[in-house]
Structures are given as structure tokens and as C-alpha cells.
Amino acid sequence: MGAELIRTAVDERGIAEVVVDCPPVNALPVAGWRRLAESVERLGRDTAVRVVVLRAEGRGFNAGVDIEELRADGGSTALVGANRGCFAAFAALYDCAVPVVSAVHGFCLGGGIGLVGNSDIVLAAEDAYFGLPEVDRGALGAATHLSRLVPPHRARALMYTCATATAAELHAFGSVLEVVPGGRLRERALEIAGEIAAKDPVVIRAAKEAFNGIDLWDVKRSYRYEQGFTFELQLSGVAHRVRDAFGRRPDEEG
């Protein structure tokens, strides 16, 4: 399982595409997160690869973890797997030896924020929107990455209310490079990737390493700290209650 969820290809210029395709909403199961991490890690080690483009098929970019997989697990195995899988995938993008360009359309929620927040360049379609609905799922996480996309107080408001921000808003903050028509998203992502691929690959890899080295905080350590609160909510039983109620109509509760 998982091989069909993530597709990769590398063209003659050294542009690698990583495509997430997990219908209906690209909410990845544990195997999908692991596969994504492995794919990006492998491409980063390939000296023929000069840049990675991360995009998705379907209705939206990413809807986070597969809630149904968590619900079906009577214990915490799936949660531990999802947390480790997300950690690995986010870290793989951050640590990738070459720049990662994320091309976002539709919804970018939960784990999608972790992917985009750890990317080097973000492009968005006009219909793209971003948010962390973790509170409504009885979990926490990816505030680390949301804080790389929007100012601190906006990040707090988005987390506490489970509201979303538009691509235009993130463009105004400078975290989204460009907002383009949906039909041009992949084309524009490949154009920007082509500009990077045309540079000296040794210099580009050095530039990526240098940028990571001067980051003001350790994104992996920060995210791991957040995950501890998700485990607390799970162990206390709160996560089960909130997650089980998620998506139900009021007349179904109780």
C-alpha cells in the first residue's frame, strides 16, 4: 500500500515532480505519508535532480491525515504512525538537498500546511485556501509551519477558530510567491523550477543548505514539541471524543 498514492518523475532538466493522488481529498494514510517522505528523500539524494515540484491531483492539495484510519484503530497505533509519517514527510521537504516548489490548488489543510510551510517556494491557484482545523479533530500540530506562512497573531487566530486564509492573503504576506489561474498552476511551477534547474547545481545545493543553517528556529524540534500535546489529548480521551464527533450532524450526537 502507498505506492499508488505518490507518483514521481524526473525530466531531462533535472526537474523532479512528486504528485500526490489519494482520492477523494488527498488525506493520506500512514503508508502515504511514509511513501511521500521516502520519495522526497530519494530524489534529494539523486545528483541528477536539481529541483523538486510537489503538487497534487484531484479536488485539493492535501487534507491532512486520514481521519477514518485513526477512527478505525482501537488504540494509538495509527496515531503514532500518522505523527511519525507526517514528521518524516515534513522533514524530508525541509532537508531535501535541492529546493522544493509546492504548487497548491483547492484546500491545503492540516498536514498540507506542514508540507507547504517546509517548502522553499509556494505557488497557489486562485482557488487555494489554507488552514489548520486540528482543534476540531482533537489534535494539534503544524503551528510551526503555519507560523512560517502568516504572522504570529494571524496564525493563532487561524488555529483557535479553525478558519482558513486565502491564497491572496498569503501572497500579501509574501509566503506565496504567485497566485495563478488553476489551469496554469503546474505550468508556472515548472517554469520556476526550470529557472532553478538552469543554475549551477552545486551552488543551488549550497544555497539550500545555507538557508536551512540560518533559520531562526529548528522546525523539526518545534513540530515534535507540538506533537506531544496531540499525544496528551489522545491519552486523556479528549481526542477520541472530539474526533468521533467530527463531521456528524447535531441530531447524530449523543
From TrEMBL:
Gene3D superfamilies linked: 2-enoyl-CoA Hydratase, Chain A, domain 1
Sorted UniProt keywords: Lipid metabolism, Lyase
Keyword Nucleotide-binding attributed: no
Keyword Lyase: yes
Top-rank taxon, per record: Bacteria
InterPro entries: ClpP/crotonase-like_dom_sf, Enoyl-CoA_hydra/iso
Similarity section: Belongs to the enoyl-CoA hydratase/isomerase family.
Protein name: Enoyl-CoA hydratase family protein
